[in-house]
Specification:
By secondary structure, the protein is an all-beta fold. It has one domain: Rieske [2Fe-2S] iron-sulphur domain (Rieske Iron-sulfur Protein), CATH 2.102.10. Helices cover 0% and strands 34% of the residues. The strands form three sheets. The protein has a three-stranded antiparallel beta sheet with strand order 1-2-3, with no helix packed on it. A three-stranded antiparallel beta sheet has the order 4-5-6, with no helix packed on it. The relative contact order is 0.21. The C terminus is likely disordered.
């Protein structure tokens, strides 16, 4: 996957055993974060328009369906219908000039508040 500039995002699909997981990668402040593309509120995808995950000011991630607002670096919902819930993170490892994203941890509850 090519490296994104600050404030940019891209979607992707991962094969995780028998299922396919849709995820997204964002560059926020020069650091990369990846999440399952599923709102912690209703389970819908966050982007109504392809690859539009950030709020207009670029400070937060937002769900286009009901306006849940998330911190880009932790996935924690800070405003809207699901405060305290979290997006499901996807592990990222940098290997040379590539980012390798892995499947989510099994049995992780996205509403968990201990992140």
């Amino acid at each position: 996957m090519s490296i994104l500039g600050t404030g940019q995002s891209t979607k992707f699909r991962l094969r995780c055993g028998e299922r396919t997981v849709e995820g997204f990668l964002v560059n926020h402040g020069g650091r990369f974060y990846a999440y399952v593309n599923r709102c912690a509120h209703t389970g819908t995808t966050l982007d109504e328009w392809p690859n539009e995950f950030f709020t207009e000011d670029g400070r937060h991630l937002i769900c286009a369906t009901h306006g849940a607002v998330y911190l880009p670096d932790t996935g924690l919902c800070i405003a809207g219908p699901c405060p305290g819930a979290s997006l499901t993170p996807l592990p990222i490892v940098r290997q040379g000039g590539r980012l390798v994203i892995s499947c989510p941890e099994e049995n992780r509850d996205p509403r968990r508040r201990d992140r």
